[in-house]
Rieske (2Fe-2S) protein
Amino acid sequence: MDLGPGWIAVALGRDVEPGVAVPAIVGGREIVLWRTESGVLQAWVDRCPHRGMRLSLGFVRGESLSCLYHGWRYGADGGCIGIPAHPDLVPPRTITATTYPVIEAAGLIWLALGDAAGTPPAPDGAWTGAISVTIDRDAASVAAALDDAAGRFAAVQPVLPGRARLHVAVADGGDAIAACLWAEDVRRRLEIPLLAAAE
Ligand code: FES
């Protein structure tokens, strides 16, 4: 999938807590989202530069992410800072995980696969992520099915051809339960015609 430049919502902010790494797929690309224990958000290609293990299976230790396989440790700029089998070696700077620009806005986590100019297309103010729903329709179809409501903000993540994630946030004091019910209703409205056609 060719997504071009710009910010893409990929998760609720609350779903990537400090000290945790989680996988995501954006336009077919496998990403690891993780947060250092001090709270700095990261988005990297989900592949260890050593032998290709998924970094989302690894462990956050302080401000670094360690690979599950051989324990190579990567700092917050993606560079390798430790190789357990060679404790006296200073890893060369060429051993670096691929990183993406990442930011939080309106209760959601956004990354840019290319040009990260500007800011995410999100409203100002205090927002809290309410729900993420996977929908078996392409991102454009999901985006076309959204309707506006006061106190609710939604963004669509292209995952794979024919699959998207809908992320919904509510303004502080907003009705999170109503937002969750709305997201589920969007999913049903889009998927039920597909199921009926397949019968
Ligand atoms: S594959 Fe990650 S440390 Fe070896």
Summary: The radius of gyration is 18 Å. Residues 123-198 form one domain. The chain has two domains: 9-82, 123-198.
